[in-house]
Structure formats: structure tokens, C-alpha cells
Amino acid sequence: MDKEKGILSAGLFSAISASLCCITPVLALLAGTSGLAATFSWIDPFRPYFIGIAIFTLGFAWYQKLKPLKEVDCECDPAPKKSFLHSKAFLAFVTVFAAIMISFPSFSSVFYPESTQQLSTIDPLNFQKVEFKIEGMTCTSCADHVQHDINKIPGIILATASYEGKNAIVEFDKSKTSLSDIQKAIDKTGYKVVDTTIE
Asked: Which domains does the chain have, with CATH numbers?
């Protein structure tokens, strides 16, 4: 029984670890502590290994649970009833939870509210478009967090962040905000602006 608990614990730990770098930005948003978002970004290179360990350990747990028992011919007392923690239902619950944790980056954007900027007509002389190169983003959740915080700044027309491109492209009214205000907002998320290009 202790071996079974160890296998389940390893599977759960691996699944949670695999998505920790993507869950942290959402937790930071919900907690209102934006700067903690990049805390676990160092885990991202190890994510495939954690996913592999989670799949292997949970697969082994299912194998152990479903393999046929050897029949022993004896006059023994019947085996005691297994607790919920040793049941197939609990293993199914752990497996579903692990699958949700592993796939978290693909649906993390649902936790970020839609932000729309209410701007009247802009003087074309005040329009500016800038690309910010950002270090530390590792998944869509990171990019969503950066984009969400940029869009809270007054004067933003459009902001799109991409972890693949390691950047954020921002269109804004420079009479209402500035490059430094936007950079400060990005840096405050825990990710770091390393370069800016005015387009």
C-alpha cells in the first residue's frame, strides 16, 4: 500500500511541477502580486521530463491496479476492504487532476479578463508602436499575464504579447502614457524588458 501511495505522489508531484511555471502567473494575478509571476520560469526546460515522469508513474499505477490478481488456494480470512485512497476511483481522480495540470498552459488564458481600452479618436502625431523584447516568458500564461498588465495602462490602444516571439508589441497614445510606463508595467510582472524597438 505504501508503494502505491509513493507512485501516486510521484505522479501528482511531477504533473504539478510540469505546470508550475504556467500556474504561477495566474495565481499571481488572482492574488494581486504581479511580481511573483516569473518565480518558477526556471522550471520550463524540465517540463517535458516532469510530464514524462507523471505519465510513466500514473501508467504504472493503472497497470498495478488493473492487472489480474493471482488466485491463492487457502482458507485465509478475506482481504480487508480497501480505503478510498487505494481505490480505482481515487486513481481516476488523480489521473484527471494530473491531466488538467499538464494541459494547463493551453487553457490558462480563460483566467485573464478581457481588457478593452476605451479611447476616443487619436491624433496621428501621438500614435506610437513599439516592440518590447522580453526575457523570462515560457508559455502562453506568461504572455497573457504581460498582455493583461500592459492593457491596464491608460492610453494603450493594442497590446499583444508572445512567448514564442519573446516580445510584446504595443500601440499606444504617447500623450497619455510613455515607453517607460509600459516598460515598468512589464518589469513589474517579474519578466524583464531587454530591448525596445520603435516601429
From this structure: 2-68+83-110 (no CATH), 115-198 (3.30.70.100)
